[in-house]
Amino acid sequence: MDYEGKYFPDEDDAELSKGKKIRKKILKYSFYGVVAVVYIITMIVLFSNCEPDMYKEVTFTEEAIKIYNSAPDKFEVYRVFPKTFMNYDGSVQLDTVAYTPTANEMEFGVKFNKKLINGDKKPSFTVVDTNGNTYTSVTTQEDRGGRYIYYRISFTNIKLNLEDNIYINPDNTSKAEGEGEAFDTLKFSFRIEYADGKAPEELDVFNSNTAIEPMSFKPN
């Protein structure tokens, strides 16, 4: 680079021999070629790993949409911010977890690394609570991109104890501060079971201390 910031200044070309000029051009265009290849590879990686819209798009089931259409103004939806939104190595991640007490449904966006799947054996997803109840998925959307499989999964017949939550009912804040994790009431977890015998994993989703807030919702 010269003092003007040029990598390949041309003002001295007249003084160079034909062979040096050729070598200079080869070096110049090789440099540009490398830059172009790096840029193209970077763009390919970025686009191949783009998260699909369905991963973060709340839809709920057809039954929930019927309830919504019957009384849109009375259809409540909350966004839940799970205490544990990914497993220990980040190979499983949760996003845009939504809950509607109007239809008793909970929906998850799940980002799942392909390396966790053994052949065609896909994992199964459930929601479990501390009372021993297990909720199975009723709808699942799937998409793929780069190293990941993306799911949008809905579960029905779930009733979160919203009134015990400190973000819904601030009166419980003093209890939570005094008892810490003991003030846990009913807890819900997202459970992943692998078909190849690997130990199941659970991500804590909701309890009395979990952040939760109302969110707008309108079906597509």
Helix and strand succession?
HHEEEEEEHEEE
Unreliable segments of 5+ consecutive residues: 42-48, 178-183
**Backbone CA Rg:** 27 Å
Strand content: 25-35%
**Whole-Å distance between the termini?**
55 Å
Number of strands: 9
Biggest sheet strand order reads 8-7-4-5-6-3-2-1-9
Global outline: elongated
Structure overview:
This protein is α+β, with helices and mostly antiparallel strands. The chain contains 3 helices and 9 strands. It has helices at 18-48, 62-70, 173-179; strands at residues 78-81, 92-100, 105-113, 124-129, 134-145, 148-156, 188-193, 201-206, 211-214. It has a 9-stranded antiparallel sheet, with no helix packed on it. Strand 7 (188-193) and strand 8 (201-206) form a beta hairpin. The protein is elongated, with a radius of gyration of 27 Å. It starts with 17 loop residues before the first helix and ends in a 6-residue tail after the last strand. Residues 42-48 and 178-183 have low confidence and may be disordered.
Please supply descriptive tags for the structure shown above.
single chain, 220 residues, alpha+beta, 9-stranded antiparallel beta sheet, 3 helices, 9 strands, 21% helix
TL;DR?
The chain is 21% helix and 30% strand. It is α+β, with helices and mostly antiparallel strands and 220 residues long.
Task: Outline the fold blueprint.
Elements (H helix, E strand, L loop, with lengths): L17 H31 L13 H9 L7 E4 L10 E9 L4 E9 L10 E6 L4 E12 L2 E9 L16 H7 L8 E6 L7 E6 L4 E4 L6
Antiparallel strand pairs: 1-2, 1-9, 2-3, 3-6, 4-5, 4-7, 5-6, 7-8
